[in-house]
Amino acid sequence: MVNIALAKDYLQRARIRLEMLDTLTERKDYADVIRFSQEIVELCEKAILIKLGITPPKLHEVINVIIENIDKIPERHRKFFLNIKRDCKWLRSQRELAFYGAMDFIPLEDYTSAEA
């Protein structure tokens, strides 16, 4: 079942987070730029899956599910998803580290503008 209302909700929440990125960047809060960027990607990916009639798995990164169903995506957009796979996976790998940090990694100190 396609729940368009849920897909729209995900996209609206992604837009709100996107609007916040400029403020976070200005404040040099690169850790939260990375964290919010991952959330934006996750919400958009899950909205796409819903629009394709696929229930998104309860995972933070679902680009592989999109690629597994690439035949359901208009041909003109397929290359885009194949090209962003690595970046999506990198953002996912940074999700918890950007939020919690680690004994040897202080998010506000260790992330750079280049990474953000």
TrEMBL record:
Domain (HEPN) ranges: 11-116
Gene3D superfamilies: Nucleotidyltransferases domain 2 (1.20.120.330)
Name the UniProt record assigns to this protein: HEPN domain-containing protein
InterPro entries documented for this protein: HEPN_dom
Domain of life the protein comes from: Bacteria
Pfam families per record: HEPN
PROSITE patterns per record: HEPN
Transmembrane region(s): none
